[in-house]
DNA sequence: GGCTTATGCGCAG
DNA sequence: TGCGCCTAAGCCA
């Protein structure tokens, strides 16, 4: 580990040359343990990225916040919202306020359902609330609601347990697939537009999706124009034809 | 080169 | 509810 700069420089002297002993993710929060118990908390936010490559690593250029070096490869962190050295108590405080994470072995869909079913907030809000469930972002929110035919404005209270169980299982599969492939694909093979002679949509989010960022384009399933609206300061996308549940 | 946009989220008011 | 953080890519001129 080397090279924190700017407002992330505080931890540099304590960490430079230390060995990474553990790396863990809870939702969108990353925890890197160095040595016995020095934990660096990283949150990528909107812009953060890790750029990986084979050694030798290039000379640090621009605002490089953190560099990991292994035997053969390096990873450079740029643009994170958070990159800070935390105490155990601070790490615990962050994790205590995070809901279950579908990518973790301890994922507990029933705990998520308890919160959803008590709330009159729309599902679009609840799925983005990291206290309710962690790790689901704007893409998975839009795509999950589509795949389960749910109007994003549906109240949490109106969601039945059976539907949630199917959604939770679906999330686990979709998110694990996303980790494996490094991109988000949510379109079932039978709905794939390439099979129907329409051009596939692929952008730097990588994958094939039903509604995310497809406003004004025809739904892959019913042809209705995909709609968009600003919901709690984030872009929400849905198909009014397919999502009436 | 400038402008717009974006997978998130904490904070002020 | 709106702003600020902070970076890269895509688009336009």
Structure description:
The termini are far apart. The chain is built from 6 helices and 9 strands; from the N terminus they run αβββββββαααααββ. By secondary structure, the protein is α+β, with helices and mostly antiparallel strands.
Q: What's the number of helices?
A: 6
| SSE sequence, one letter per element | HEEEEEEEHHHHHEE
Cα radius of gyration in angstroms: 20 Å
Tell me the distance between the termini.
50 Å
Instruction: Name the overall outline.
Output: globular
SS-based structural class?
alpha+beta
Describe the largest sheet.
4 strands, antiparallel
Rounded average pLDDT? 87
- Total beta strand runs: 9
User: What order do the strands of the largest sheet run in, or round the barrel if closed?
Assistant: 1-2-3-7
Which assembly state applies to the chains in this document? single chain
Which terms summarize this structure?
24% helix, 9 strands, 245 residues, four-stranded antiparallel sheet, alpha+beta, DNA-binding, three-stranded antiparallel sheet
